[in-house]
Structure formats: structure tokens, C-alpha cells
Amino acid sequence: MLTLATCRLVLAGLIVLALSSGGCAPDQLDIRAVGRLDYRGRVERIETLGRYSRLESSLLFHLAGNRSQVSTENDYFLYRVTYPTAGVHGGVTNVSGLVAVPAVRTIKGVVSWQHGTNTYRPNSISKPSLPEGLGVAALFGGDGYIMVAPDYIGLGVSMEMHPYYYWPVIISTVTDLLSIAEIMLNGMGEDPDRDLYLAGFSEGGGATAAVQRFLEEKNPTGLRLRGAATIAGAFNLREISLPHAIESDRPFHVAFFLAAFSYVYGEPLDGLVQSPYKDKLVSWFDGTHDQEFLQRHLPQHVNQLFTEEFMRDYEAGIEKPKWFYDAIRQAATYDYAPHAPLRLHFGNRDSIVVPEESRAAFAHMGQLGGNVELVDVGPYDHDEIVLPSLPPIQRWFDSLEGSQP
Length: 405
Hints:
The chain is of the alpha/beta class. The protein has two domains: 279 residues, Rossmann fold (3-Layer(aba) Sandwich); 94 residues, 434 Repressor (Amino-terminal Domain), CATH 1.10.260.160. The chain contains 14 helices and nine strands. The chain has a nine-stranded mixed sheet, with helices on both faces. Helix 13 links the parallel strand 8 and strand 9.
């Protein structure tokens, strides 16, 4: 019987083989075909990462400890795509993303995966990361979908700071990659389904809701949104996320919000963040530091991060500085009525993004008449919830195939 260590060595060998050889089995599709399509100026570069087999997909889920039934019927090709998108402060900037294309001409549609919080550029999903990048590629690419996963600005090839929870440019990053996926869909498939599905975890859960809201107001693609699924998404920073961070004394995500919003809005952190952190947060969250570094250098307690003045105002219900509260309010993604079905998945032991985030969003969207469902995945904490959530999401997307929009 293979030990876990042996299985990991086998998987590593298979991945190296795929990356170096591009696969070997004959199929209807040529791995080079994606690079020959006419992208009409939407693509700067396409890098071929290799061909992955059904066996590799099965091993990925086995090694991850997932015994749930998943559909991995197809080999698939992996690519890293570099493309232009809207910059944080105007103009155009280049970003990157991971793309999986099934090695068959019968393509079910497109799945866009929005990844969770990442502070460290070398861990970007388009590397591809293990398990997230390879995992979602195997899950959806192996099931017959074109899967796209944008790195976002500040990650992958982008050297800027990541605009954490600033949806306007994250939406552009996602939808521009969807337009590229649409070209691939038209060029690779035979009478392909033009169905679109959205899914995301943590920050990517909020991004998924933001993208759905945008697409249902104004869809710049030719794809038809069939369904969206969030996993442990934070939808209300002002009323839920910020109070939870303060009450549970967890400064990490608050520090990321502060750094990103200061960068995005060009506002100083004076009067909001104590020294020496007010002069260091932006540089610490510039994509060159991993979470281990940040945990060592960030304060251990929220009252060491915020100034006494801010904390007094917060406890008195005074919203100062106004720009900060405006910024976290603008990051809300619970304030719409989904037309395509939206499923909000949460772990009932999540200590980072508390269950109330999904429950409150579900209640508010339902009051607005939205097509929304709440899914309690079970007794999982934040980093444990993705694996048990993904197979049911795959099956749900499959069940929506061909449904009326």
C-alpha cells in the first residue's frame, strides 16, 4: 500500500512530467491550439503549463484527503495568461491568471474561480499553486469546463499593491479574463455551451458576489450567468467584519484593509494607525511578504494597531476618519438581489469569517427578492472549509447546465 509520502512523490513526478512534456495521449484538441486563436489585443502572453490527466486529478483529490465523489472525466491543458486590465489609479496595467481548458471539443461552459486572501506574490494561483490552483483546475477543467482564475492586481505578473476588497478593479480583472475565456470557448469547442458559473473563497467570495452584481447589471461578455457559489465570503465589512476583528482581537485582516485602502484612496493612516505601523503597513502588504513575516511583524493586538483616538471614536459610534468608513462601506456585497441562483456556503465554526456574514447576506438578499440559498457546510474553521465545499459546488453547476437563465 502506498504511504502518503509515496503518493506525494508519485504526484510530484506526474506533475513534473506534465509540465515538461505537455502530455502524450492523443486527443481531439492540440495543446498549442489555444495560442493560435485571435484574441484581438486582449492578450499579452500565453504560457503553456502542460497537459494533466484524469489520473493526476484523482491523485490531487486523494492526497488532499477528499473522499467525496467528483467528476474528473477529461484530461485538460493548463495555461498562464497575461492580459491588460484597468489599473487602480486609472490607465491600463497587465495582470495574469490561470486557465484550464478541457482536452475535448464538448465544453460545458466557463467557471471563474476567485481565490482567497493572499499577501505573497510567489504564491499566486497562476504558478499554479498547490492545492488551490491545481485543485480547482482539476475539479472544473477535468469536468469539461474552461476554468479561469485571475491573480488580481498585485499578484502574478503585477508588481503593484493588491487593492484588497476594492471591487471596481477586481471586477475588471475577472471580466477581462472571462472575455478571453469566451474567445477560447468559441475557438476550441464544437457548439459549446455559453454558460458561466462563478465561485470563490474568502476574499474571493466577496469578489464573486461583486462580479455577479456587476454582470446582472451590465454584462460585457457573451456568456450567460447560470449560478454563483461563495465559500466563507465576507460581505459586510462595516457591520460584521470590522466589529468581529476588534472584538476577537485579530489585527491581520484589518491591517490589510488599512494598507490597501490607504493605497487605493491616497489617504494617510495618521490618526488611525499607531507608529511605527502607520508608516510600514503599505510596504509590508506590497506582495513581497508572506503571512509568516506579517504575523511576526504586525502587532499582536488590535489596540496596538489602532490609535487610542480611533478606538474611542469607534466605541462611541463616531465614524472618523470618514474616508476609512466610506471605503469599507463601499466594499459591501450583500446589497443586491441575485437573479441567477447564488449559494452562500459557510463553516459553522469559522473564526475568521464568522457565519453571520453569510447568514446576514442571505437574509438581506432574500428580503430584496434575490435568488439565494444558505448552505451550512458543517463544523469547519476558515481554512478547512474549501475542500468539503467544492465537490457539491461542482455537482450543482453540472445540474444547472442547460437550465433557463
